[in-house]
Amino acid sequence: MKNYLDVSGRIFDIQRYSIHDGVGIRTIVFLKGCALRCRWCCNPESQNFAIETMMVNGKPKTIGRDVTVREVMETVQRDMPYYGRSGGGLTLSGGESLLQPEFATALLHAAKDMGITTAMESMGYAKFEVIKGLLPYLDTYLMDIKHMNAEKHKEFTGKENTMMVENARKIAESRMCELIIRVPVIPSFNDTEKEILEIAAYADSLPGVSKIHILPYHKYGEGKYEGLNRPYLLKDFPMLPAGKMEQLKALVENNTALSCQIGG
Amino acid sequence: MNTYDATPVNKTERIGRLVAHLYAKMPEIEAARAELITESYKQTEGQPIMMRRALAFAHILENIPIIIRPEELIVGSSTIAPRGCQTYPEFSYEWLEAEFETVEHRAADPFYISDETKKRLKEANRYWKGKTTSELASSYMAPETLRAMEHNFFTPGNYFYNGVGHITVQYNKVLAVGFDGIKKEAEEELSKCCFGDENYASKSVFLKAVIISCNAVIAYAGRYAVLAAEMAKTEKDEKRKKELLAISENCKKVPENGAESFYEACQSFWFVQQLLQLESSGHSISPGRFDQYMYPYYEKDIKNGKLTREFAQELLDCIWVKLNDLNKCRDEVSAEGFAGYSLFQNLIVGGQTVDGKDATNDLSFMCISAARHVFLPQPSLSIRVWNRSPKDLLMYAAELTRTGIGLPAYYNDEVIIPALINRGLTLEDARDYNIIGCVEPQKSGKTEGWHDAAFFNMCRPLEMVFSNGYDRGVPASIQTGNVEDFKSFDEFYDAYKKQMNYNISLLVNADNAIDMAHMTLCPLPFESCMVDDCIKRGKSLQEGGAVYNFTGPQGFGIANVADSLYTVKKLVYEEKKITIKELKKALEMNFGQGFDAVTAKEVALQVAGSLKEQGKEVTPDIIAMTIQNVLSMELPAAEKARYQEIRDMIDELPKFGNDVDEVDLLARDAAYTYTRPLETYKNPRGGIFQAGLYPVSANVPLGAQTGATPDGRLAHTPVADGVSPTSGKDVNGPTAACNSVAKLDHGIASNGTLFNMKMHPTAMAGEKGLESFVSLVCGYFDQKGMHMQFNVVDKQTLLDAQKNPEKYSGLVVRVAGYSALFTTLSKSLQDDIIRRTEQAENR
After folding, report:
1. Is residue B684 part of a domain?
2. Which of A35, B147, B525, B645 has a CA 20 to 30 Å removed from the CA of B74?
3. Distance from the A1 Cα atom to the nearest Cα atom in chain B, whole angstroms
4. Is position B60 within any domain?
5. Are A215 and B817 within 8 A, CB to CB?
6. Nearest-CA residue of chain B relative to A226?
7. Is B841 a residue whose pLDDT tops 50?
8. Measuring CA to CA, how many Å separate B275 from each of B255, B293, B328, B524?
9. What residues have CB less than 8 Å from B509, skipping those under 6 apart?
10. What are residue A168's phi and psi, to 5 degrees?
11. Does residue B468 surpass a pLDDT of 70?
């Protein structure tokens, strides 16, 4: 059998000292390639699996490189002392990590073998069999649920939500990791009380799920669209009014048993 | 379970008014001390120097004007003007006379001086011609040492021109037995002296000098007791009247006797702190473990119900204000190096007890509160961190860091304690360490550490490798061979080590000469009576009376040297992309980046030097012409392009500070070229040299005296600060920078290392931001880092970062849902963060 440290995959960034994505000080490995095309995506360079060029501050920058798990872990393990002190660890993000299942699994496996805790930000866009393979190595699944309506979901992200919503339940029922539901709050897509409550009610119905994160929409990705020479479809989108997130948090907590956190 | 009460207490309105009063006017230079010491010295000529010092100290304390400032609860001021300063002509005075007309208007730390004061000082100073420590020290130095100083290899300026300071005395002993108790101890020791003892002369005179000094201090406090009582008589406000009467009672009792109440302990502490600085002009006289030695008095009064936590906090706040009332006028150049009127009075909280338990108590927290209440630079607040430091203390400290005040500095017990044991301290003494000045560990009350003995520029010997010992056209160091003949990196590195060893020996020569001068001319009996084993041995600190003796000069520029060595190793000898000859030329030509007038002159002198070497005649005309040529020189395009190419290649190499083992381990080894030779030398007080790796802010002025270096650094720009990576070269974030710095051997740099890190307030926002910050510090310390301090940057810095991104590539900011390196963000996002910083600042 191939040593899992030699499995290779494609990433576009490794970010150390990430302190606002999960518990403690974390290193985020961003896997390249996504199944969805969310209009608000703030990491558009994550979407294509192909290696591409993006203009950053007027200079061309190659986005994407192929690396082995060994190479990635060489960097990840360097912050072990800080993980130990803060309860942090490795986080996989994307893109959608599940599009490179063997690589994602090997990364999580390697981390666990080194005594590093693991988390993954994912929409759950894969057959459950694929997800099941990596759950033994995953401590926290940070799962996006963007909308409960399949059509609206498709309109704004390019894909229906059916498989992902079902996967959320299967992951919860497996009881193999902590599952936290995350909702990016996007004006004119899902920011009404009804829409947020629908997601929250579903999350609340999942066994073992007690936390939901609502993430305020921001336009920080705008410059990247320019750099990739792609149109930014949400240019004229309204911003969230001040106090909106706090209202939604109160709404969720008043109507469900979930604890709701603003931001990741 | 926690045994302390961490609940914060609010600040009183009095504190705000005390601060306002202190800062209402520009600080002023006063003449009283200079006149009094001169008067006394004139009367004591022919007596032993020790006796003259004690009699002069007593004469000053008996006659110097005293004042109680409005609303003060803790009294004792060395000048009538708030934040004023006295002068100390016995150490040096000529610089001040030369700067009489400019000292009020200079950029760094201006002082007002009246015409009357100028006249009085001039009159007093006349006496001191040829009698100062700086003049004697120069005459003790070898000619090679003076030459090395002239060529800026190192500067021992601190003790060359000033008193030594840099000490923590036995405050606890004064609190316990008072100066009456110390006097009795000296009297008892004196009674044991036999007329036939070989050291009768020196010992008996020293002990008598101690007794005179103790009496002088007791009498000085008595003057305050009388003044307070007089002021109470005419005071209309009943509350203030009571306060003045309490002050009078305190000053009658302490520091003559042991303190009983917390209030008395505070007043007693203050007289010691103030008068140490009036005896000598040293800075970095550090209160040390204040939360430990003050706690018994606090605890007793709180238990008895005699003291409220509110009043205890107000007294601490008053002391914090008083620590900013002391001041020191330095010469213009030093003032730039130590900008901010800083006296580096280091006060440390937390850590362990002598028996290895956590030492945190109520006062540990209240000291941090005092820093928040007063929000002034003094004292330099520090915190000791160890594996069992309570999290709430670290979190409370982190909150202070977040305010941007730059305090506290964090110190690692787990490195410092073994480092001190390695220097011969007992386990108990090592556990009881505190910090002196910037970052220097010492055991209080037992050490004469000479902690800030010099700054040594590690880049200058590197320049000497390229120039074969020549600087500005003349020999300045030993010859280590023509660099162009070196066939391997090892040969190059060996030459660097030889240059280092030679110049380190001269540094030692300079320090020991100054040491001798202080011993001969300025022994300090008052300071010495509060340090073991001076009384028992009958010797002052300056003569080796302390239990532990050290000399601690600082090396700096590690990052530049490491990155430079890596350039030579990689590009010249391994990859052979450039020849050593090309590199030498590129450095001389400042990578083709042109020269300012100063550099042009240096290049011209270098040219002249090599002409001379070839046996050609060099006249001033030739030099002037060469300067002109250099200034107007347009390099051939191809040559210029090649220099740029070389600099680009250098730029692409990994640099220290990015967690790249190959470079970091070279940095570790490069640091040894300074720390290892140094520890083999001894000082005249019977102690050894121990290296520090920190520059205060000398990396800027001393960088201005350093040519281009192979790490791509241009001529005359600052060199790297302490053990920190070169500014802007750490691009992998804070954990990578910490890991790199932790790869140095901090344990051998037992005089302290300094790691400066920049953070954005938003990266520390919220509970999570604070927790991550604490984990970052602890993670660095787990890897055996020694010290950390933080600049939490503000909007101005961010604006500068936007303009000069190359200087700020390591700056972490918090973006929407994550933290990121500021300079990697788009302009619009940067603007947004700047706006948010503004908001945070306005709150």
Report:
1. no
2. B525
3. 32
4. yes
5. yes
6. B826
7. no
8. 11, 19, 14, 12
9. B141, B142, B144, B145
10. -55, -45
11. yes
* Nearest CB partner across the interface for A16, out of B736, B774, B783: B736
What number is the average pLDDT over the span B531-538? Answer: 97
The minimal CB distance from A19 to the residues B772, B779, B783 is found for B772
Rounded to a whole number of angstroms, the distance from the CA of A220 to the nearest CA of chain B is: 6
Q: Provide the domain limits for residue B610.
A: 598-630
Q: Which CATH class is domain A4-184+201-209+220-232?
A: alpha beta
B112 bridge partner residues: B28
Task: Give contacts of B778 with chain A, Cβ < 8 Å.
Answer: 81, 85
The residue to which tokens 């936290």 are assigned: A180
Assess whether B101 carries a catalytic annotation. no
ipTM for this prediction? 0.91
Residue B573's H or E segment, with its range, is none
B194 flagged as catalytic:
no
What is the Cα–Cα distance from A11 to A95, expressed in whole angstroms? 9
CA-nearest of A152, A151, A163 to A122 is: A163
Is residue A221 within 8 angstroms of chain B, CB to CB? no
Residues A156, A36: Cα–Cα separation, whole Å: 9
Which of A16, A28, A218 is nearest residue B735 as measured by Cβ atoms? A16
- DSSP 8-class letter at A50: S
Give the nearest partner residue to A82 out of B775, B820, B826, using CB atoms: B775
- Tell me if B686 is assigned to some domain: no
The two tokens of residue A18 are 């990430």
What is the count of structural domains for chain B?
Answer: 2
Do strands B455-457 and B470-471 pair parallel, antiparallel, or not at all (unpaired)?
unpaired
Per-residue confidence of chain A (264 residues) as pLDDT tens digits?
568 999 999 999 999 999 877 889 999 999 999 999 998 888 899 999 999 999 887 889 999 999 999 999 999 999 999 999 999 999 999 899 999 999 999 999 999 999 999 999 999 999 999 999 999 999 999 999 999 999 999 999 999 999 999 999 999 999 999 999 999 999 889 999 999 999 999 999 999 999 999 998 877 778 888 889 888 877 777 788 888 999 999 999 999 999 999 987
Domain-wise residue ranges, chain A = 4-184+201-209+220-232
Residue B103 in domain:
yes
Q: Are A24 and A75 in contact (CB under 8 A)?
A: no
Contacts of A240 in chain B (CB under 8 A): none
Output B251-257 pairs: Cβ under 8 A, ≥24 positions apart: B251/B75, B251/B221, B251/B222, B251/B224, B251/B225, B252/B221, B252/B222, B252/B225, B254/B178, B254/B221, B255/B174, B255/B178, B255/B179, B255/B217, B255/B218, B255/B221, B256/B178, B256/B179, B256/B180, B256/B218, B256/B221, B257/B178, B257/B180, B257/B181
pLDDT band (50, 70, 90) for residue B109: confident
Q: Considering B440, B448, B543, B602, which one is annotated as catalytic?
A: B440
Q: What is the CATH number of the domain that holds B237?
A: 3.20.70.20
Contacts of B776 in chain A (CB under 8 A): 17, 25, 82
Q: Which of A20, A75, A117, A185 to mutate to test the interface with B (most CBs of B within 10 A)?
A: A20
- A218 vs B: CB within 8 A: yes
The size of chain B, in residues, is 843
Residues 100-129 of chain A whose Cβ lies under 8 A from any Cβ of chain B:
none
Residue B307, helix vs strand vs coil: coil
A28 with A89: CB under 8 angstroms?
no
Contact A81, A19 (CB under 8 A): no
How far is B585 from B484, CA to CA, in rounded Å? 11
* Residues 63-92 of chain A whose Cβ lies under 8 A from any Cβ of chain B: 78-79, 81-82, 84-86, 88
B339 φ/ψ angles, rounded to the nearest 5 degrees: -50, 145
Q: How far apart are the first and last CA of chain A?
A: 38
